[in-house]
Write a structure and sequence with these properties.
The complex is a heterodimer of chains A (about 90) and B (about 375).
Chain A: E1 2-6, H1 8-11, E2 19-21, H2 26-36, E3 55-59, E4 62-63, E5 79-84
Chain B: E1 8-13, E2 16-22, E3 29-31, E4 40-46, E5 54-60, E6 64-70, E7 78-79, E8 111-116, E9 125-129, E10 133-137, E11 145-146, H1 148-151, E12 168-173, E13 181-185, E14 189-193, E15 201-202, E16 223-228, E17 236-240, E18 243-247, E19 255-256, E20 265-270, E21 278-284, E22 299-302, E23 307-310, E24 328-330, E25 338-341, E26 347-350, E27 358-359, E28 367-373
Antiparallel strand pairs in B: 1-2, 1-28, 2-3, 4-5, 5-6, 6-7, 8-9, 9-10, 10-11, 12-13, 13-14, 14-15, 16-17, 17-18, 18-19, 20-21, 21-22, 22-23, 24-25, 25-26, 26-27
Classes of the chains: A alpha+beta (about 90), B mainly beta (about 375).
Chain lengths: ~90, ~375
Amino acid sequence: MLEVHLDSWLRGFGPRGHETIEADSVEHLLDALEGRYPRLRFKLRDESGALRRYVRVFVDGTDVSGTTGVGTPLTGARTIDILHSIAGG
Amino acid sequence: MAKDDRVRILVGTRKGAYVVEGDKRRSKWKVGPMVHEGSDVYHVAADPRHPGDLYAAVNSWFFGPTLWRSRNWGKAWKETGTPLTPLQKDRKPTTGEPNPGNPVARVLNNMWHIEPGLASEPNTLYVGADPHVIFRSKDLGTSWEPIDAINDHPAKKDWSPGAGGACLHTILVDPRDARRLYVGLSAVGTFRSDDGGASWKATNKGVETPFLPEKFPETGQCVHHVAMDSADPDTFYRQDHGGMYVSHDRMEKWTRIGKSLGDDFGFGVASPASAPGRAYFVRLDGMARVTGEGHFQVHEWNDKTRTWRKLLSPTAFPGNFGVQREGIATDNLDPAGIYVGTTTGQLFVSPNGGKRWTVVPFGFPAIHSVSVANPSV
């Protein structure tokens, strides 16, 4: 089971605390998360399924957003953090 | 929603949106709280068929584009179901095969314009968006259908974006015939449909493209905005990258009217209900993209006399102001109210057709759009 943490902005659309989800990839994890919280749909990914530009997914503390992205396998992983990158102005 | 005799200015900004309520004289203005905080709001539109209903095109760097509706003049907002929101079950890439040489994306980017349909179609809405797409709803935004003849246009692989993106930013409906539609896309030009969007004709004849080798191509014009004349729906006023134009024949051909002004660059144009044959432009320096004369100015075009008139004294509001494509609007009162928002956050107001001007005493974030919710009495 994966323990999923969202930042405070995303918690406005989804779980207020952490969520426990079983999934074998980031894609399937997001599918499950969006299934539980439909308002998260398209907030994290666009229509093509790619992560939005400023969404960061950390698997056990490692940012996979710019590398393996949604295809990242989650075998053996324990903690997922979904955050927004520093941007703005 | 009860009848309401107030004028409301709907302001979309770089950091959220505002509803600004005026008194009956349009001399005092009350700025409401910022809503959609932190998001680019490219357009806020009132639905005159349903007084109190407002729609906002909210474009978030983080969350993507979403459409929101208020049913009480902006006091409370709710994300509505559209192809542009998470509530639609099957949102898919919106355009045809990608062209590696064309930077236009295949997924929905920013939403640029919301257009309510005619009174005869009380539940119809249109939304124009990037990448060069338009959607129609027949149930006030609960569900949406793409207008494929534009969204999957066979020439689309050759269409280029403007600096603001591949925006479909202008949607106009002929008040005599809901099947006659007009759209404006950057940097593609204008199109007309006479069959409810099933087919479209490019309507850019006479509009110059100073940024292309071919000066009068069929498409490729960077139209910035178009306004329909209130009394003659065959007449249109166009602010294009290539200057200011008028058409009197449903956009079949365009005549440049701005040359006598020198630099006739700009983004916004509006034509008021109470003054047919008049159009208001904010002329900008074509290089700097701000008012180039060192002060705020609005130019009035009189289509009967074919003359221009400056509405402000050069000493009224010194400065160099930027105004975006949705940055000027008019109300439906007589005399017309004229409203102009700037990229440095000023909201200029004239309650009497340009005779007198004030600025709303509030510093807005950079203003993308200004529109009007007219009194519902």
